[in-house]
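User: Good morning. I'm curious how LLP would be positioned relative to this chain. Could you predict the structure with it bound?
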Amino acid sequence: MHHFDYRGGILHAEDVAIPDIAAAIGTPFYCYSSATLERHYRVFAGAFRGQPARICYSVKANSNLAVVATLARQGAGADVVSEGELRRALAAGVTPDKIVFSGVGKTEAEMAFALETGIDRFNVESEPELELLSALAAARGLTAHVAIRVNPDVDAKTHEKITTGKAENKFGISWKRAPAVYARARELPGIEPDGIDVHIGSQLTDLEPFEAAFSRVATMVEALRADGNPIAHIDLGGGLGIPYRGDNDVPPHPDEYAAMVKRTIGHLGCQLTFEPGRLIAGNAGILVSRVIYEKQGDDRTFLILDSAMNDLIRPTLYDAFHEIRPVTEPASGAETVIYDVVGPVCETGDFFAKGRRLPRLKSGDLVAIMSAGAYGAVQASTYNTRPLVPEVMVKDASFREVRARPSYDAMLKQDIIPDWLDRP
Ligand code: LLP
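Assistant: Good morning! Here's the predicted structure, ligand included:
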């Protein structure tokens, strides 16, 4: 569900016509819908009404301060994986008591900053991290609430690059070793190991792997409690998938997911934390781009856009499908062409879609790459010295640039020519 629709034959974000934004700031740009972000948050949170659950939006999916602040105003907490994300969450108005710190490689400086900030809890992913956190907290006279992230060795049945809960993945501590790790944690000063955490992957379109993982967690909580561990919190991570192909994709509804959660771990009476990212932000954003050329190859037709893999890397990195819509609604029965939709970057991997049937487009036409709100702008780079793509937020009939396009001067000023070289 989202708020990007044709009105009078022109694609709008809420009440704003996309060509108006393009005229104001140029292309390419990301465009986010406040109403969609808010709705997704409310639908997910609403699914857990009656369960002791809180939602910590996974900031990595889209960390623009405007996005995080929009969600914070709805009551969302934050799941962060770096000091930078923690600083973003705080700057966007998320209070420390609603922040969880996940991630497999937290540094000493990051953990010290998080302890001093007074965040709610740490999801710990290894024994060395546990020992270091204990030492840092104890040295400050603090007690950190800790959940051990367990690796349940369950196949999430998603793309291999976004699978996190198999034994061969770097994430979490083997569920088999967890009892010994909790026993060690109980001996350590400065930490209270009163939680357990699991996250098996992203863009899951089936409840079955979740159910297998959560059932394993339930069994573990019972065993850990029997060993004297007072487990009162369960963090079930994120990962619920979204429709990328419009009505042809039907991932489980948050209500079904919530019912499954209740069925598998409801009897434990624990406080629950969820870390959805994509589900909140994915369909709340589009990447708007302009056609530079239509180019005829020997056996295919290329549609060359002014955005590229550096702006949205998902198609080439995860074989991801993103719907592409012309901003001007095609007339019914309009001529169509099978395109390879590509960008200007000097790599064969620079594509958005291959063999995609679209209405015939020409230089100057605008297109929208849909479902690009999550893992889009946050994974953008300046490869080929292309300015970082700007971001725009829409609310009703208003829009604001929430990250401006950097100037070439600003980009070049980041580099320094050492003084042993002759200045050009
Ligand atoms: N919690 C943890 C510990 C995670 O590692 C992740 C995502 C999430 C929550 C949020 O998962 P979500 O609800 O968004 O599925 N760049 C990839 C996705 C990487 C996901 C990384 N971790 C992509 O574009 O598909």
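The two ends are 54 Å apart (CA to CA). The chain has a mean pLDDT of 96.
Let me know if you'd like a different ligand tried.
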